[in-house]
Amino acid sequence: MTETRATNITWHEGHVQRTDRERLLAQQGATLWFTGLSGSGKSTLAFTLEHALIERGRLAYVLDGDNIRHGLNRNLGFSAADREENIRRIGEVAKLFADTGVIALTSFISPYRKDRDQVRQIHREAGLPFIEILVDVPIAVCETRDPKGLYKKARAALAEGRGIGFTGIDDPYEAPLAPELVIHNDSGTPQQAATQLIEYLEAQGLLPATRGRSG
Amino acid sequence: MTETRATNITWHEGHVQRTDRERLLAQQGATLWFTGLSGSGKSTLAFTLEHALIERGRLAYVLDGDNIRHGLNRNLGFSAADREENIRRIGEVAKLFADTGVIALTSFISPYRKDRDQVRQIHREAGLPFIEILVDVPIAVCETRDPKGLYKKARAALAEGRGIGFTGIDDPYEAPLAPELVIHNDSGTPQQAATQLIEYLEAQGLLPATRGRSG
């Protein structure tokens, strides 16, 4: 890298490195990929963790249905091909976030092992941490919770002979074989689960000691 | 927003706000959209600016052909529909970056006014700054520079009667009618152009006073 000076600014030639951004943020970029059934509590967990990270002075951002399905992936439906493309794009965006030094938290059912493994692969190739988190809740519990009434709809459709490909009902959920972390999210609070996640990140050296507000 | 305490961490309920991330970063998220002919110097300018911003302690990230065409948009070609989708996706990703508090710098020819205006529109709807920067260089100058030999290829194809839809040769470049900034990039250095950009951002209140290293 060479340096030149123009006016009062120091100029560097050559690209900024990921490590330059990570030094600036005092953190390492990573993707935390939450996967699990509808109603397992992925989003609540992701947003709870995002809060805890920001509170600790860490830059985190949740990618979820709200900001993806109405934006980047608004032109995708629920066919097999579109579901695969949905996860592929989310994986690529999470990778860009991690490369920026951000902790990307993704909250999608992402039922197919192959699709998640592909996202893991592109992170590995880029030397970026990919943490797959199985939010594990028995489907009977998810179906009892059914916060958006989606299971009820899926059962009704199925009863009428119209399968809608709902994960866990008439479409498979392929649980990760070797996730970095399993959260048994059928008991306890989101805060307890988030604490487990933070302890994991600290143990992995992905999260430095708390900084920021002491109050 | 309510607060609960578990272990030694303060927990907040409800989503993190954009302003929380911006406070953490001590900067405002924004998209700086560079548009101009091939060879106009968009990427050099974007990377020069990225360096200057990081040097000032600001988090910035360049989205360009290298990290988009080989990743998120690897399944797009150069048909009219694919070009439109290319810009649409980049616009959506830039918006997510800006929402995270990052200064997103995009470096793409993005020749069609309608596509750029659509990106402006989604930023406006989200209340995010969108700065369109025309990197203005006469096509004759771009063609003389021709750093990647692309104009030469386009001319050769055209001479053989095979149009390839190359911007400025056999496909239109629709210059912005009201860009936030015009960089006349056929003279001067990238550093001078980047200085002009930084002065603009400061004048707009998008860039606070310099912090970080004094050396």
What does this structure look like?
2 copies of one chain form a homodimer. Chain A has 8 helices and 7 strands. With 215 residues, chain A is an alpha/beta fold. A 5-stranded parallel β-sheet of chain A has the order 4-5-3-6-7, with helices on both faces. In chain A, strand 1 and strand 2 form a beta hairpin. In chain A, helix 2 crosses helix 8 and helix 4 packs parallel to helix 5. The N and C termini of chain A lie far apart (42 Å). The N terminus and C terminus of chain A are likely disordered. At the A-B interface, strand 2, helix 1, helix 2, strand 4 and helix 3 of A face strand 2, helix 1, helix 2, strand 4 and helix 3 of B.
Overall pLDDT of chain A: 90
Specify the number of helices of chain A.
Answer: 8
Structural class designation of chain A: alpha/beta
Strand content of chain A: 15-25%
Walk across the major sheet of chain A and give the strand order: 4-5-3-6-7
Describe the main β-sheet of chain A briefly.
Answer: 5 strands, parallel
The coarse overall form of chain A would be globular
- Looking at how many chains there are and whether they match, the oligomeric state comes to homodimer
Distance between the termini of chain A: 42 Å
Question: Roughly how much helix do the residues of chain A carry, as a percent range?
Answer: 40-55%
SSE string of chain A, helix = H, strand = E?
EEHEHEHHEHEHHEH
Largest interface: A-B, 50 and 49 residues
